[in-house]
Amino acid sequence: MANPTSTEAPVLTPQFCFNEKLLQDFLRLSRSSIDDSITQNLNALVMPSRQGFDPSSTAVRQTDSRGQKVIDPNACQGFKENVLFPSWQARSDVLNYCAGVATSPDPEDPDLILRQTESARDRERVVDERLDPYSARFFPKEARTESLANLVRNQRTVEEIIRARTWGLVSERCGGSSSSWEDALNDWRKKHQR
């Protein structure tokens, strides 16, 4: 089973968010330790030694995934409460914080003066598109807050997809839960006052 300490969120600062590689690495590592290896994490919860060895289990090849044993409900609940939901919450906290940073003014933007200069030059430019049809193109450099906002938006979409897939597997292996992953996570948040 994955180590719950691997889901701890980093210290949240604007510098962390603006370092997009560091932000993406945290999200990628968190997802790979829990969500990408969900089948292995769930298989680790099965305790076949408690039931004893059944010699007839080796007589037929088990290729049907529905033949997998349902995991002990207490083990499943413990996994969800102590590993899965804390991991999801840590990633949600990081994305929410960085979304706030992306929508705040950025007085320390290193490219602010360059963008302002380019913008002033662009306003003064006289374009004769008959001579050069491409001269009207102007690609202003994106502010780092805009870049961060796009990254956060994309990562939230990725989170939705990954969580839906993970929750489907957890529901299948742990005995079908009728609630969605959003409802289950919100219930966990209420219990843990997050």
Molecular structure report:
The protein contains 7 helices and no strands. Residues 1-6 have low confidence and may be disordered. The protein is an all-alpha fold. The chain has a domain at 13-41 and 69-102 and 139-194. The chain has helices spanning 14-18, 20-33, 38-43, 73-102, 112-124, 144-173, 181-192. The chain is elongated, with a radius of gyration of 24 Å. It holds the Pfam family MIX23. One of its GO terms (cellular component) is mitochondrial intermembrane space. This is Caffeine-induced death protein Cid2. It comes from Penicillium malachiteum. Residues 174-194 are annotated as: Disordered.
Mean pLDDT: 79
Proportion of beta-strand residues = under 5%
Assembly type: single chain
Radius of gyration: 24 Å
In helices, the fraction of residues equals 55-70%
Low-confidence stretches: 1-6
Q: What class do helices, strands and sheet pairing give?
A: mainly alpha
Biggest sheet architecture: none
Tally of extended strands?
0
Report how far the terminal alpha carbons are from each other.
24 Å
Morphology: elongated
Distinct helical segment count: 7
Sketch the topology as an H/E string, one letter per element: HHHHHHH
Region (Disordered): 174-194
InterPro entries: MIX23, MIX23_fungal
Pfam family, one: MIX23
Organism: Penicillium malachiteum
